[in-house]
Inverse folding.
């Protein structure tokens, strides 16, 4: 029996073409992609201009309710504030409730990446040899809006101050697993009795030039000449890389006792969590999937369940050759004896890969599936041509009541995390 039961009482979300969780869930249910041609990438002449990005119209809506001058704050802080206000409203909470309770903020965010405007600013400090003169750079302090002036945990600090959280504040910069690790860490802190209430999840804005250059140089960005909406093809033989995306999601967790005291509506439960780090390779896991298998089995064991209890898996499913094959091999071993009773989905087929944000976004979509009994399809998936036909990936939405979902996040650097979520 767990030390303390941990409940989900609210969530907020912002993603490309969807500024709330219900809109995103409905969009994917209708098999409509959030990936499109990025005007910046096209203007720069990139071979592949597909991305999931929050556009100017969405940013106007995001900044409209910000308390203060949004232009004076990093966009990550503005987005985190927007999603946090959604989550608190959904949970029936106010910032004062966090200030009064033993509370925590666990936020996944990897880094600020400079864009072309930031680089132009730095270029003014180049010497005759074409190298940045650091002395000149330090003599000309960057404004608050540039990447060079920000702390990696700036959005965490800003949000903690707005909510009056003091007991536990942490930033997770754990690559693609950061959002899931933030939720898992909040779960652990509540379970152990360290806090009673937490806001957890991730915010990531990397759909710009430098991340594109970095991931493209690794061969991780989709190389196929396909329409933007068809480029993310998890677990298909013609997959050739992920589509860069961005977004944020935050979840309100609280102990069952705390939820009962305030008569909160419980939306779901966190049942188990595991984080297994490996030292295989910076950009890929053990090719036999053994480390992913170890992580998933540890999460199931942590929940006190058998693999047969898991009915649906929200896979990491990046659409890269190595990651998908590792995960598929691991899934076949973990659920081999009960394979016919498990369904699978890969949300990145519709949203793209928002790195730290992905795990948090996928956790929210998984919670909606548990609540509503609707399982999301994997876009661009053709069962008759799939690489791993034994895995029952959905290519159409499925109306089916389920009790337990596993959500996977397997990141660069060998950081692997699995989360088990249950019905309320």
């Amino acid at each position: 029996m767990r030390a303390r039961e941990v409940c989900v009482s609210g969530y907020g979300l912002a993603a490309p073409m969807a500024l709330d969780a219900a809109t995103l869930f409905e969009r994917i249910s209708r098999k409509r992609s959030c990936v499109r041609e990025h005007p910046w990438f096209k203007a720069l002449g990139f071979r592949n201009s597909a991305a999931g990005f929050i556009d100017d119209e969405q940013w106007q809506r995001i900044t409209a309710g910000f308390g203060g001058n949004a232009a004076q704050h990093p966009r990550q802080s503005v987005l985190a504030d927007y999603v946090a206000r959604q989550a608190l409203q959904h949970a029936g909470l106010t910032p004062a409730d966090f200030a009064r309770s033993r509370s925590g903020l666990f936020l996944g965010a990897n880094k600020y990446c400079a864009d072309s405007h930031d680089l132009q600013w730095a270029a003014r400090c180049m010497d005759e040899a074409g190298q940045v003169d650091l002395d000149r750079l330090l003599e000309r302090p960057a404004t608050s809006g540039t990447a060079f002036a920000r702390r990696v945990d700036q959005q965490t600090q800003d949000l903690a101050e707005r909510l009056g959280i003091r007991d536990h504040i942490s930033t997770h910069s754990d690559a693609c697993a950061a959002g899931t690790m933030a939720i898992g860490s909040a779960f652990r802190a509540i379970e152990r009795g360290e806090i009673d209430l937490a806001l957890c999840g991730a915010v990531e804005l990397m759909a710009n030039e430098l991340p594109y250059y970095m991931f493209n140089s690794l061969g991780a960005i989709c190389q196929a000449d396909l329409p933007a909406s068809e480029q993310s093809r998890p677990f298909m033989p013609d997959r050739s890389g992920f589509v860069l995306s961005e977004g944020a999601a935050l979840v309100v967790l609280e102990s069952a006792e705390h939820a009962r005291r305030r008569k909160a509506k419980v939306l779901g439960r966190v049942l188990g969590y595991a984080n297994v780090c490996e030292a295989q390779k910076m950009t890929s896991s053990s090719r036999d999937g053994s480390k992913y298998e170890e992580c998933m089995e540890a999460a199931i064991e942590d929940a006190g369940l058998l693999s047969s209890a898991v009915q649906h898996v929200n896979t990491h499913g990046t659409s890269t050759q190595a990651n998908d094959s590792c995960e598929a091999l691991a899934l076949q071993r973990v659920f081999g004896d009960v394979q016919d009773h498990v369904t699978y989905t890969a949300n990145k087929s519709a949203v793209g890969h928002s790195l730290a944000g992905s795990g948090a976004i996928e956790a929210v979509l998984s919670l909606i599936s548990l609540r509503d009994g609707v399982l999301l399809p994997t876009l661009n998936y053709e069962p008759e041509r799939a690489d791993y036909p034994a895995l029952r990936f959905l290519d159409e939405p499925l109306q089916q009541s389920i009790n337990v979902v596993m959500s996977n996040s397997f990141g660069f650097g060998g950081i692997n995390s699995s989360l088990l979520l249950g019905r309320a």
Remarks:
- The chain is about 35% helix and 20% strand.
- Residues 75-91 form the longest helix (17 residues).
- The chain has one domain: 6-112+150-422.
- The first strand starts at residue 6 and ends at 14.
